[in-house]
Structures are given as C-alpha cells and as structure tokens.
Design a protein that fits this description.
Length: 514
C-alpha cells in the first residue's frame, strides 16, 4: 500500500544523504518535495503541514552526531516524526474488562466490517484462546446476517441465531445476554453501514452503543478511501466515540495517506490492519515497523513473526536435520516453497527486507513474482516419487516429460534442479558450523533446528540487535556478501542459468514474456 509514498520519500532522502553538508535552503527544498509526495499519497493537508513544520524545525536546528552526515540526521528525524504521526506505541485490542467484553465494529458499507469481524474472532479464538460469539446487526444489506453465519460455520465460531423483525438495538441486547448466559469472553457486534455518511446511520450506531455499552468501538476503514478518510474518522469519533481504527485492504494499491491522516485527526490508535482476503490475514499495527517500510528500511521483526506463525516447528527440525546430512530432496524443497507462499509469497516477504524497496524496478525486470512459486511447485508435482527423492536420475527424456506435464520449458527444469543443488549445498554448509552473518536469521526462519514461537521479549531483543548506523537507523551488516548490497540479492552460488541474480528459493526464472 505504501509503495508510492515509499518510492518518492526514498528518492528525496537518498539525495539528502549523499550531501556532505546541508544548508537551510537544502532542507526547505527537500521539505517541499516531501510535502508534494505526501499530498499525492492522499495525506490530509492539515496533517502534511503539521508534519513538515515539525520535521523542518528539528532538521534545521539538529545537533549532528559525529560520523553522521546532516542528510542522515534528516532521515532519522523524518523516520521519528512518521512514527509519532502513526502513533508512538502500537496498541492492541483491550480485553481487560468483565466478560463478556463487547466490541462494536462500525464503518461504511463495503469497508470490510463483516470479514474483519470474522478475522478478529478467529484471531481471538486461536491465538488468545478466548470464547467468542459473533452477532450481525445489519438488517438492511441482503444476506448480511447469513454471510456472518457462513463465516462462523467455516471457522467453527458460534454466531447469534437470526430472529426476523428485530431492531439492531434489540439484537445488541440479545447478544450481550447470550454472551453472559453462554459464558463467552468476547461478543463481536457487526453493525450496518451505508454507502455514505448519513444521520440515520450515526443515530443507529449511537443507539447501539447505548444499548450494548461496548468496551471497544472500532472503526473499520478501507485504506483506499483517500482524502475522505479524514471526514469519515472525525464524524464517527464525534458521534459514536471511537477507541481504535482497523485499516483494511492494506495489501492493495492504495497510497497510504489514510493511515497517516486518520490517526492524526482522531487521536485514536490504529490497532489492526487487514492484509488480505483470507481470515488469517489480520495483523497488529506497529507504527515503527510501518514507518520503516515506508522509508524502505524493511521490517525484519514482522518477518520473524510471520515465520513463527506459519512454519511448523517439527517439520522445520526434520528438514534442518536432513539438510545437515546432505539429504535435502525435492519433497523438502516443495515444503519450503509452500511455507514461503503461506508467509505472504515473494512480494510479501520482500517488502519486509531492508533496501528491497529501492530495487523495485530491478525486481520487476527480473520477473520475480508470486507466480514463480506456483511454477516451481507445478514442476515438482509433475515428477514421480522416485524422481523427487533422487533428482540425480533426471535425464533428458524424464525432463521432457516433466516439462510437458507442468506446461514449462525444459530449461525451467534445469534451473529448478540447479537451485535445489545450491540450496542443499548452502544449508549443509550452514549446518556444518560455517556460519555467516545470515545464520541467525536462517535459524529463525526454521532452517536451524526447530522454530518455537518467539516471546515479545525475544522479538524486542531481535529488534535491538539489528545492525544500526550511527544515526540509529537499521542497516545491513557490513560483512554481508557483496551481492546483497545495491542490487538484487545474489548469494554466492545462487545465480540462475540465465546469469541473472536470484533469491534463495526463487530460482532464476526469466523475465515476463512479451
């Protein structure tokens, strides 16, 4: 979602960091470009003015630390101010109340309230081990109540039985009573929306709040809303009283201005973000991590969290042991590809890696996208059991058969086999004690003997240990292979047959066909 803003700010700040000394005129010129970039990203004008004034004031009077250029200092100031604008500390859903804790979801029609309600129920049931009841109060939209009931059946989470003819306030009271009688920890109230803000919707939301007395009132807002997000957030906050915001469609091509604007205008924290259509695509909102993504610094801590949530510890331990013994076959490689797809695919993972945002054009030219994983899995699926277990037996005739079955060229089979050999050699080397700067991350990703879910303290420790420059911002270790700096990641021995650099586990597939 933040790609456009990230690209523009990255270019502006890169030019600053290359300057040995900055004058007031340099800062003013940079701030004009930052203002333009933020306005183009649909950030509210008032928020942009406030942001620019604060950054400019600090940048001109900044105390430059020894070995840090003025340009680097400005980057740090912009980063810190982005964090402050998004909300200094990430806040989660507050469940510290007498059960059942009522959580009311409000927002416009089509913003994703019903889907977000189901996502939140799944998260609380599976992660927080809470007993959750969902209730639909939308008596206007056709099949809205049935939609929530179907989602509840799919997730095995109870929903309030539908009683025809009841008003939303009556349904809310019945849901709270059912929550008390059924011993539920949380009751989620999915309210009705309208296509635009109107008095009837606001009055109904206020009445529901009076009837249910919810502990949390969450505004579910589409991140594609743009400038109108400010009016939406302000109106709901004034009439209903919000405790937090949930941004949906963060995986889309929105410009990111809604996140910056709504938090600043309402003063209410963004608590959750929806990152996809599936019911597991809901994440906590961490201002410092989002600011890092916007400025192209990556988000390694979130990357490790995704790994912890998606990688099976026992499978990872078995694969790691096989790697150490040099027994890494194509079945094991397919498992790795599936796990990568579950963690958000190529684009999702690369968006969290430091410096990747600056290589966007190179990545596009290399044809690296999520289709790569599907093609590789299709090739492996076209092999027999024996071929997967013993790739060395794959000769010309077998490769032709596999290529026909997978709808690929024979050269793609060769690239996959080369990539498999490189992965096996690299992992065997890491397992034998020859550990380089990436060994710790590789172990966290499940290649080093199991993947227990890290505690919040461990995640904080990881963030603290991330290499930082003299300006306090994250940077890549100095002893990384040269291929990881200034271009596409290119670990030793991981270049595709075409000569193009490749990512571990992604192969050297050629660019998109014209």
């Amino acid at each position: 979602m933040f790609d456009n803003l990230s690209e523009k700010l990255g270019g502006i700040l890169d030019r600053l960091t290359r300057r040995g000394a900055l004058t007031e005129a340099d800062v003013d010129a940079a701030m004009r470009e930052v203002r333009r970039a933020m306005l183009e990203a649909d950030v509210s004008l008032d928020v942009v003015r406030s942001f620019i004034d604060k950054v400019r004031e600090q940048a001109i009077g900044a105390t430059v630390v020894k070995s840090v250029t003025p340009g680097q200092m400005v980057v740090k100031i912009v980063h810190d101010e982005l964090v402050a604008t998004l909300g200094s500390d990430g806040q989660g859903i507050d469940l510290n109340a007498v059960p059942p804790v009522a959580i009311m979801m409000v927002g416009l029609q089509g913003s994703g309230k019903t889907t977000t309600t189901a996502k939140l129920a799944r998260r609380m049931t599976q992660r927080d081990k809470r007993k959750v009841l969902m209730a639909s109060l939308d008596i206007y939209r056709p099949a809205a109540m049935e939609q929530l009931a179907v989602l509840g059946r799919d997730l095995d989470i109870p929903t309030l039985p539908i009683v025809a003819g009841q008003k939303p306030e009556q349904i809310a009271r019945r849901a709270i009573e059912a929550g008390k009688l059924g011993g539920y920890d949380v009751v989620l109230l999915d309210t009705a929306g309208r296509t635009t803000l109107d008095e009837e919707m606001m009055s109904e939301a206020a009445n529901i709040k009076t009837a249910a007395n919810p502990h949390e009132v969450l505004l579910v807002a589409d991140s594609l809303t743009g400038q109108d997000a400010v009016n939406l957030a302000r109106s709901f906050n004034e009439r209903v009283g919000l405790t937090g915001i949930v941004l949906t469609r963060v995986d889309g091509d929105g410009r990111g201005g809604a996140a910056l604007s709504m938090r600043q205008v309402t003063g209410k924290p963004i608590k959750l973000i929806g990152t996809g259509e599936k019911t597991d695509a809901l994440e906590d909102f961490h201002p410092s991590r989002i600011a890092g993504r916007i400025l192209g610094m990556g988000d390694v801590v979130s990357l490790v969290e995704k790994a912890a949530a998606n990688i099976d510890a026992e499978k990872a331990a078995r694969v790691a042991e096989k790697m150490r013994k040099g027994q890494f076959d194509l079945n094991d490689m397919r498992e790795q590809l599936v796990q990568m797809a579950n963690m958000g695919g190529v684009s999702g993972l690369m968006g969290m890696m430091p410096g990747i945002a600056k290589m966007k054009n190179q990545i596009a030219a290399a044809g690296i996208d999520d289709k790569v994983l599907k093609r590789q899995m299709a090739i492996i699926d076209s092999m027999t059991r024996q071929e997967r277990k013993h790739p060395d037996i794959l000769k010309a005739s077998r490769k032709k058969r596999i290529a026909a079955g997978a709808g690929q060229e024979v050269q793609e089979i060769n690239k996959l086999l080369k990539m498999h050999r490189n992965m096996a050699d690299m992992m065997k080397m890491m397992g034998s004690g020859k550990r380089g700067p990436l060994a710790g991350i590789a172990q966290a990703m499940g290649f080093g003997g199991g993947m227990p879910a890290p505690s919040p303290e461990q995640l904080k420790a990881l963030a603290d240990k991330m290499p930082k420059g003299a300006d306090g911002l994250p940077q890549l270790p100095k002893d990384l292979p040269a291929g990881l700096r200034g271009g596409l990641p290119n670990l030793p021995g991981l270049t595709g047959l075409s000569g193009k650099p490749t990512l571990p586990g992604l192969g050297g597939f050629p660019g998109k066909k014209k």
